[in-house]
Design brief:
This protein is of the alpha+beta class. It has 13 helices and 18 strands.
C-alpha cells in the first residue's frame, strides 16, 4: 500500500517552479487543470480548460502566473488521497498531468539501451540466453558508442562493418542511423500519474521499468516543459518480434507520467533537461532492491532533434504531444536465479526521480488488475461543457 505526501513527490525546490497538474474533482465528476503553489492547489480550468490549451499559450509559464484560480485544497491531502487503496472518492485526487497531448516515445536513444535491444532481439525474449549474447555483442561493437553521432559518416562506416560481420540489427539502425525511432506510446488520456498502479501485461515474464524525461510540446512544436515518465517495457514480447512493439508498450496503465508538469521559465529551461540525471529505485515485497539512473547528457540525439523528427510538415499535432526521450537504463541485475536477470514482481514500488521534477511513484500490478481506463476524450468534452468552460 502506497502512502505519499507532497514532500515525497515535489521537486527539491518545492513549489518555486511553475508547476501544473490535473486533479479529479468528485463534486464535478471530472478533472481540473491546477496550478501547484506554495499556498495550495488552484483550479485554473476556467481559463485553461485543458493542459494542452495552456501549453499552446505563447508563454505558458507567464500565462499561468497571471491567473489566480480557485483554491481546492492543499497538495498534501490530495496526494495522500491518490493511491487506490487509500482513496476517499468524495475527495480530490491527483491525476497524470497531461490530457489531450498525444503520448509519443523515442526508442534506442542511448548506446547502452541500444545494445540491450540488440540482445533482446537475439535472445528472442529468453532471459536465460541474454548473458552469453551480451558478451558476444559487446565483443563485436564495444560497450561505449556514446560519442558516435547518429547518421554521421563514421556511423555509416560502422554500419557497413557490422553488416559484413552479420551483426547488424534493426535496433542499431535506429540507434546510429539517420532516422530516430519515434512511436505512439499510448492513447490520449490513458496515462496514470504518481501514486497510481502501473500495469504489466499478465502474460509477460520478462519486463522492466524505463525511467525517462518526458518533454511536453505545443502544437507549434515549441518545447514548453518537462515531466517524468516510466515507459514500462516487456522485454519478452519485444524480444520475440519488433512487430510486437505495440503489445509490449501499450497496455492498460502501462504509461506512467508525473508527478507534475514543470513549465519552462526563468529558473528552468531545456538546458536543465539536457543535464538532468534521472534516478530509478525498485523495491520489492521480497526485499529485492534495484537502483539505477539515466543521464540525459549521454543521449545520442539532442532533444530538439527528436522533437523535430516528430512534428513538422509530414506530421502535425493540433493538441500538442508529450515525448518520452528514452533511457540509458537497462537492468541486468539478477533477481532470482543467476543469469535470469531482472523482471518485475507484483506490488513492486517503482520510483522515477529527478531533483528538478520530483518523484513519480507507482505500484506495479498486472494490467487487468489496474483501474480500467474509462474516461476518454468524449467524457472530457462533456465534463468541460457542463462546467461551461468551452
Amino acid at each position: 500500500m502506497l502512502a505519499l505526501t507532497a514532500k515525497d513527490i515535489l521537486p527539491e525546490d518545492g513549489t518555486n517552479g511553475t508547476l501544473v497538474g490535473r486533479v479529479w474533482l468528485p463534486r464535478l465528476d471530472g478533472p481540473a487543470v491546477v496550478a501547484i503553489r506554495g499556498d495550495g492547489v488552484f483550479d485554473v480550468t476556467a481559463r485553461f480548460p485543458t493542459v494542452s490549451a495552456l501549453c499552446d499559450e505563447s508563454d505558458p509559464a507567464v500565462a499561468l502566473r497571471g491567473v489566480s484560480g480557485e483554491r481546492i485544497g492543499d497538495l498534501d491531502s490530495i496526494v495522500a488521497n491518490t493511491p487506490l487503496d487509500r482513496r476517499d472518492r468524495q475527495k480530490p485526487w491527483l491525476l497524470a498531468p497531461l490530457d489531450l497531448q498525444v503520448l509519443k516515445a523515442a526508442g534506442v536513444t542511448f548506446a547502452i539501451s541500444m545494445l540491450e535491444r540488440v540482445i533482446e532481439e537475439r535472445a528472442r525474449g529468453n532471459p536465460a540466453s541474454a548473458e552469453a549474447i551480451r558478451k558476444e555483442v559487446v565483443r563485436l561493437v564495444g560497450d561505449d558508442l556514446s560519442k558516435l553521432k547518429p547518421g554521421s559518416e563514421e556511423a555509416m562506416r560502422l554500419k557497413q562493418v557490422l553488416i559484413e560481420q552479420q551483426a547488424w540489427s534493426q535496433y542499431l539502425e535506429v540507434g546510429i542511423g539517420p532516422d530516430a525511432e519515434v512511436f505512439t506510446k499510448a492513447p490520449v488520456l490513458s496515462s496514470v500519474g504518481t501514486g497510481m498502479d502501473a500495469g504489466l501485461h499478465p502474460k509477460s515474464t520478462w519486463n522492466n521499468p524505463e525511467p525517462e524525461v518526458v518533454l511536453v510540446v505545443s502544437s507549434r512544436g515549441n518545447i514548453v516543459g518537462a515531466t517524468l515518465g516510466n515507459d514500462v517495457n516487456l522485454r519478452d514480447f519485444e524480444g520475440r518480434s519488433a512487430l510486437l512493439l505495440s503489445k509490449a508498450k501499450d497496455n492498460n496503465a502501462s504509461c506512467a507520467v508525473g508527478p507534475l508538469l514543470r513549465l519552462f521559465d526563468r529558473g528552468f529551461s531545456l538546458d536543465h533537461v539536457r543535464n538532468m540525471d534521472v534516478g530509478l529505485t525498485v523495491k520489492g515485497q521480497d526485499g529485492f532492491v534495484l537502483d539505477g539512473h539515466s543521464s540525459i547528457s549521454k543521449i545520442s540525439r539532442d532533444p530538439t532533434d527528436l522533437v523535430a523528427q516528430t512534428i513538422g510538415s509530414v506530421h502535425q499535432y493540433p493538441d500538442g504531444f508529450a515525448l518520452f526521450l528514452g533511457t540509458m537504463f537497462a537492468p541486468v541485475k539478477d533477481r532470482d536465479a543467476p543469469g535470469q536477470g531482472f523482471t518485475h514482481k507484483r506490488d513492486d514500488i517503482v520510483t522515477v526521480a529527478a531533483p528538478e521534477l520530483g518523484k513519480l511513484v507507482n505500484r506495479m500490478r498486472s494490467s487487468d488488475e489496474c483501474e480500467p481506463w474509462t474516461f476518454g476524450i468524449s467524457a472530457l468534452m462533456k465534463s468541460l461543457a457542463e462546467r461551461r468552460v468551452l
